[in-house]
Design a protein that fits this description.
single chain; alpha/beta; Dna Topoisomerase Vi A Subunit, Chain: A, domain 2; four-stranded parallel beta sheet; globular
């Protein structure tokens, strides 16, 4: 994800804390926040279209609402001919299970994994 981001593929997240978490995890590229300034998700989709973005990484939350929003945003972006990368979201969803419900919890989850692997070595 970090490589894609550095190459210019923006990442769409839900909130400012999600941006902070990704920055702490070393993501340096453009991160777009869906919940800023009272914008609706459709406003965010239109903004992405106007920026002439050809592809984007969706990294919204993993709870029920986050899954619904991810599907709606994906559908709208694909209709606008924007390539949507979901592989990172799907990987985290599959490996995190109930331990990761939101992006801002990702750093803590990764630290727990590192500790667990470190104690098993």
């Amino acid at each position: 994800m970090a490589e894609e981001s550095v190459r210019g593929t923006p990442i769409l997240v839900e909130g400012k804390k999600d941006i902070e978490t990704l920055r702490e995890l070393g993501i340096e590229g453009q991160i777009i926040c869906a919940k800023t300034g009272g914008k609706s998700l459709l406003d965010v989709v239109f903004e992405i279209e106007r920026a002439k973005t050809k592809e984007i990484i969706l990294l919204l939350d993993f709870d029920r609402r986050g899954r619904q929003v991810t599907n709606r945003v994906r559908h709208n972006l694909e209709r606008a001919k924007i390539k949507v990368h979901l592989e990172f979201w799907l990987t985290i969803l599959a490996s995190g299970g109930k331990d990761v419900q939101c992006i801002e919890g990702l750093k803590t989850y990764l630290e727990k994994l590192r500790n667990k692997v470190g104690t098993q070595s």
